From TrEMBL:
Residues 25-131, 137-243 form the Gnk2-homologous domain. This is non-specific serine/threonine protein kinase. It comes from Setaria viridis (Green bristlegrass). CDD domains: Gnk2-like (cd23509). InterPro entries: GNK2, GNK2_sf, Kinase-like_dom_sf, Prot_kinase_dom, Ser/Thr_kinase_AS. Its EC number is 2.7.11.1.
Length: 586
């Protein structure tokens, strides 16, 4: 009997520690390349020498070391060792020695030229090519605490604030690219968090990596009491219990003290030196002050400030700060200019409500769509911020995916996934291309739009009313799957409310519901009404059949196919479920 209970007890104990693995248990063991080396080769000799030296080097240099061994091309070994910044030198050495032994004994990775092993307190990586300073945001490992958080909305909000703060501190304020902290959720519940990057990456790269890791939390650990996300270049972790050495962590986060200026000798010689220095420096300081005052006077005289310009500038700064604080990836302007050939007309996809959209190709070959809005224009600034905030929190196959944004110089840019078939209206209203849209495909598009709306209205963490749903805001991927886009006019909705009211009517006439267009009253039904307008354009006979008692077979467009399609069409118009029961599809 006892031997049957043993596996169950072991399983329960492993669940209870979910994300708190033992220090000597690897969290991640990976060999991403299939490049093997031959035992006894020059590369193995170089690798063995490298791995034997890294633990001691890292332990003696604040927990980080990188090195390369070998001189012959193709036989060089590159390695990196790093301990968590709150770990002391002796524990760091023990942790890294354990990783070296694990690498040597692992069946899959012991003869691989590229490998990375990670413990709770340290990581070790080696390769046959240099990776020093390279950024890789790919997530390789995630884990979560099996317990659910109490009050998940408040917990998630506080967790987001904490991780955003730690991300900034680790990237820009800590010399070791490391930060820890805590936040109070309730008098009985605290969240403890940690963020760390590989110490040789640049500050901006560290920030990008941590943004990606934080964005991954809803995928792995949403609503959980603890979780961790590890990528090649950074890692994050959060728990409701302390898991780091607070005192050592604070010391590690403090900037290194500036070197001292040496001792100062007393005596008459010293006094003479001080007197001479004062006699020289005071006139120089006075002269510089006079020059500064003259420069300020000239600038003020030449400037002709306008109140509306000042207001616009303040508004732009407000929006920029909000967008930077979002969880979206920040792109470099130079990168997007290169991707779009400096926003050339040849790459222009179309003109949106608040600016043109361009196709671009990044250096890694990924195609993107870039929406451009000039910061000198007030139009669309708030809408752009709204779109960044909402899409950063939404994930669904029928919503367009926001990849990031760019806020540099006078440019305000949003970067989206590129969808090869453009928007629905480009096909729907093109006499040549609309022949591609048979009834089966139109039915698929209508269903996809419905799934996206259902997610926005009921299934997402936020209840959202789109308010501008129309054919030009429905994008189609390579398989003609629809994705809802353009959330600039969307409204967050109180989940306990059913109707909202606004004095600012925004959207497209012809797609608005009557109560919204006339009185500013909007709800989930407003989006449904707009969808019906789009669907009637996808199904031209629909508007006629609602006014005339005609058989769909007699009025259904020939491009819809045969009687089977018309049968589905008839059931959709009646609002009846499909044959055989099940969920209503129209």
């Amino acid at each position: 009997m006892h031997h049957r209970l043993l596996p169950i007890l072991l399983l329960c104990s492993s669940l209870l520690v979910a994300t708190t693995n033992a220090d000597n248990e690897p969290q991640y063991k990976g060999c991403p390349s299939d490049a093997n080396y031959t035992r006894g080769s020059a590369f193995q000799a170089n690798l063995d020498a490298l791995l034997s030296s890294l633990p001691a080097a890292a332990a003696s240099t604040s927990g980080f070391a990188e090195n390369a061994t070998g001189a012959a091309p193709g036989q060089q070994a590159y390695g990196l060792a790093q301990c968590r910044a709150d770990v002391n030198a002796s524990d760091c050495r023990v942790c890294l020695d354990g990783l070296v032994q694990d690498m040597a004994s692992d069946i899959n990775c012991s003869v691989q030229k590229n490998a990375m092993f990670i413990y709770d307190k340290c990581k070790l990586r080696h390769s046959n090519t240099s990776f020093f300073g390279d950024l890789d945001t790919s997530v390789v490992f995630s884990a979560w605490n099996w317990r659910n958080a109490t009050g998940p909305e408040q917990f998630t909000s506080q967790l987001g604030s904490l991780m955003s703060s730690l991300r900034t501190k680790a990237a820009y304020e800590s010399p070791r690219r490391f930060a820890v902290g805590s936040v109070t959720v309730t008098p009985l519940v605290n969240i403890y968090g940690m963020a760390q990057c590989t110490r040789n990456v640049a500050a901006d790269d560290c920030n990008r990596c941590l943004v990606g890791a934080v964005n991954y939390i809803p995928t792995c650990c949403d609503g959980k009491q603890g979780g961790r996300v590890i990528s090649w270049s950074c890692s994050i972790r959060f728990e409701v219990e302390p898991f780091y050495n607070a005192q050592a962590a604070e010391e590690a986060m403090s900037p290194a003290p500036a070197p001292g200026g040496g001792s100062v000798n007393g005596g008459a010689g010293s006094n003479h030196t001080v007197r001479t220095a004062l006699l020289v420096s005071i006139p120089v300081a006075v002269a510089l002050l006079v020059l500064l005052l003259v420069a300020v006077y000239l600038c003020r005289r030449n400037r002709k400030p306008h109140k509306h310009v000042q207001i616009a500038t303040a508004r732009h700064e407000d929006i920029d700060e909000g967008m930077r604080s979002s969880e979206s990836l920040l792109y470099d302007l130079s990168m997007l200019r290169a991707a779009t050939d400096n926003f050339s007309e040849e790459n222009k996809l179309g003109e949106g409500g608040f600016g043109p959209v361009y196709k671009g190709t990044l250096q890694n070959g990924q195609d993107i769509a870039v929406k451009r809005l000039s910061a000198t224009s007030q139009q669309g600034q708030v809408e752009m911020k709204n779109e960044v905030f909402l899409l950063a929190k939404l994930q669904h196959r029928n919503l367009v995916r926001l990849l990031g944004c760019c806020i540099e110089e006078h440019e305000r840019l949003l970067v989206y996934e590129f969808l090869t078939n453009n928007s629905l209206d480009k096909i729907l209203f093109d006499p040549a291309r609309q022949q591609e849209l048979g009834w089966g495909l139109r039915h698929k598009i209508i269903e996809g739009i419905g799934r996206g709306l259902l997610y926005l209205h009921e299934d997402s963490r936020l209840t959202i009313i789109h308010r501008d749903l129309k054919a030009s805001n429905i994008l189609l991927d390579g398989d003609m799957n629809p994705k809802i886009s353009d959330f600039g006019l969307a409204k967050l909705f109180n989940i306990e409310s059913s109707v909202g009211n606004t004095s600012h009517i925004a959207g497209t006439y012809g797609y608005m519901s009557p109560e919204y267009a006339l009185h500013g009253i909007f709800s989930a039904k407003s989006d449904v009404s707009a969808t019906a307008s789009s669907s009637s354009r996808s199904s031209p006979a629909g508007a006629t059949l609602t006014r005339m008692r005609l058989d769909p077979l007699k009025i259904c467009s020939p491009m819809f196919g045969g009687t089977g399609a018309a049968g589905t069409f008839r059931r959709c118009l009646r609002g009846a479920p499909p044959r055989g029961g099940g969920r209503r599809r129209c």
